[in-house]
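We now fix the convention by which a protein and its fold are recorded. The integers have meaning only within a learned vocabulary of local backbone shapes. A complete example follows; check for yourself that the lines match position by position.
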Amino acid sequence: MKRFVASAMAALMLLTVFASAAMADDNTTSAASTVEIRGPVYNGSSLTDILANTAYGNDTAITMDANKFAAFYYDIDNNVTTESLSIKNVAGTSGRTIGDNGLVYKTTIGKAEYENKDVDWGNYSVIGFFADKYIPLKSNAADKLAKLVLDSDDKYTLKTGESLDLGDGYSLQAKQVDVDGNKVWLEFDKDGEYVDDEIVSTDSGDHTWTCKVDDVQGEDDVPVLKVHVNQVFQGAVDSIAQIDAVWLIDYANAIKINSDDEFGKLNDVSINGPTITITNDDTFSLTKDSDQEIGQGLYFKVADSNDLRFYAYKQQTTPGTYDVRGTVVSGTQPYTWTSDNFAGFFYDLKKNVGTETLSVSDVNGRTIPKNGLNYSTTISKVDYNADDIFNGTYPVLGFFAQKYVPLKSTDASKLAKLVLDSDDKYTLKTGDTLDLGDGYSLQAKQVDVDGNKVWLEFDKEGEYVDDEIVSTDSGDHTWTCKVDDVQGEDDVPVLKAHVNQVFQGAVDSIAQIDGVWLIDYANAIKINSDDEFGKLNDVSINGPTITITNDDTFSLTKDSDQEIGEGMYFKVADSSDLRYYPYVEQTLGNGTVTTTLGNTTSIDNTTVTDNMSVTPTPVVNSTETPDVNASTPTNMETQTTTDTSATANNTTETKNKSPGFEIVPAIFGLLSVFYIVRKNR
């Protein structure tokens, strides 16, 4: 009997652990986010109407290049653009339909300067390909490409045995440093495996090692790495080499583009030396309320509207920090950015609502005079995502490229960020908690199936805020939670939750929620007339409108990032010609998108912070041959094949999965057996 009891108890404990794990998994939240970088907004009754609008095109085509489409590769210093996307007025283009070969993507090899201009490396060939920066393996052929990993003018010091992580599995190791001879022995590795090595002298030649690799997509002598050694010197203990320029391509994952490749709806490929042109071999429909893939992460987002309104966008899923920029301006002419031409500004496609403008005027040389820089934003109204549930609209205000909700619909001075506006469905059983984000949560306290009611509790950081019993057999099934003393305002709607139904599951009573709207009232802000926002320091608040100008002159200094205010910047070209654009930074990492402030190093359209690290590594003499491994982008040839597919999602979801009901009968059955056996004995 004791042996049986011990066995039964052990099994019961194991099942309890599994049940707990299942329940824990059910209550976890999943977040999947992307950065969406969009192009200009096109609006009209039909494609024919849009094509005829001289503000967009010339009746024969509308074309987006990097000056208009922030996702496309752009080198502001050299004013280099290589990509364009056009909709052409061909046979079959009308209404919402683009005719055969009417959607044209084109890219042509250009030239860019190395980041370190002092080492006199000249320039290198570059090409944007579906909004990513690539390096052609041959300067006059666009069909064989490798991504740029690094182009840096940062300084790094390496002592003997140390390894410099260059990114994407590539590294550079200082094997030995010869101070007397002013030389350093460097080794280049991929995934820890030897690729090549070189002794670089700093007292003769150009102090540069250009590493060339054979058999990269069938090409030999391909320059894949350039390293400039500034100096070697004797430290207090160690001999040290200083590197001040590194350029590297991901040759191991080089791709080959063929004429029979297909890229989403773009499936007619033509390669003519330095130019790739890809068109649609079939008609392309801009369906109402949809995201239509163009190819390789490029999409059209089409409004839920009877009018035809759409924009192109690139969906970024790779963690990193992205510059989301506006139209490029050359010279001193006045210019105004709105949500139509500045992808960073808040924009609601469905309602065609943008609230922000930024303008420059009276620029003299590189100086914007007092009050020549003007930022303005005005409250507007948008639909709830769950517009079939929550009737009406709510007030919204873009403020320095962030979406806010005014606490009062006619007063722009008191704002709270929008946390959630969702029409996703969530199921909660008694005791379950729905994580809404930013420390807010919604808990199902009890579910009354007979009365078709659920008792909900709203919490912040685990602390009680409010609760309500919501009925599904009368009224609008909605709880609107109002809070007092939010920046001095009472009865502020901070949460709306719609309960679709309550029902009896196999074991538990369950409530289904199909609409949630929430603002971050706990961190609401108040804007005062004496506030300052970077260089914008003259604040005027007039009911629903905020206007902020510069009380001092503003300099567009060559080769600089000048903060406008609150994380919004001007990037100014390293050029004798004045060329600049506004931008904000968005960081994608660990499933979340955040606005990033601070100093970052720009690498094509992506910026990374401290991309390289130094790691001490044992010194080993290696004679291994290069290991060239590759991944396989869709429809393109590579060195080797691995799966690089990724799931992209524009929303952040928090869902409770179906509970592990099957565990409960197992536990019950085990207890029953235990009881019967014990009773019989």
